[in-house]
Amino acid sequence: MTILKTVAELEAIYGEPSEASLIKVSDRPTQGYRKLVKASALAAELPTPVSPMRELNQDFDSRSCDREWSDRARSSM
Hey, what long-range contacts does 35-43 have (CB within 8 A, 24 or more apart)? Predict the structure, then answer.
């Protein structure tokens, strides 16, 4: 196995990164990503970010928390 130590070594093998890979930041899952996750057997096992709160407090409003998540994440960056 060869260990790559520089970006130049990586680019020599894979070439320059595509524009799509450099600008693929989204504040929510895209339609394509949702399809990928939905098709994954693992997705059924993954908890949502608010699942632990719902388990601790049955009155916890998880829908509001999920709706407001992107705003909270954006403000923390």
Answer: none
